[in-house]
Design a protein that fits this description.
Layout lengths: L1 H27 L9 H29 L10 H22 L3 H10 L6 H24 L6
Helix pairs in contact: 2-3, 3-5
Amino acid sequence: MKLTKFLWILGIIGFVIGCIGFFDRLFFGLIADNTGSYVSWGLLIAGYIYFIGLSAGAFLLSTLVYVFGIKKLEKIGKFSLFIALVCLVMAMLNVFFDLGHPFRSLTRFLISPHFSSVMGWMIFLYSAYFALILAELIFASNKNFHF
C-alpha cells in the first residue's frame, strides 16, 4: 500500500510540474526555450511524428475490426479508436507548442486561411481526421449500430 501511495504522490507532483510548464509555454511562448539548439527544437517535431504515427497505427487497427470485420480483434476496436484520438490530440499539442504563439497562429488560420501554406493544410486535414475518428468512435460505442 505504501508503494501505491508513493506512486500517486509522485504522479501528482509530475502533473503539477507539467501544468506549470504547459502554462509557461502557453503564456510566454518560446522565451524560456532554447530554440537555437537542435535538441530542443527537434524534440517537439520528433514527438509530433511519434504521436501521429501511433494515431495512424491505432486507427488502422480499428479499420481491421470495423471495415474488414476481423472478429479476433473486436475486443480492442473501440480502445484503438480512443487511443487514435488521444494520440492525435497529443501530436497536435506538440505542433501547437512548437509554433511559439499558438493562439495567434490558430486565429490567423481561422480568420484568413492561406491555402498555399502547408501548416494550413495540416490544420484542415487533421481537423477532418479528428472528426472522422470521433464519429467512428461514437458509432462504435452505440450498441444498436452495426457497420
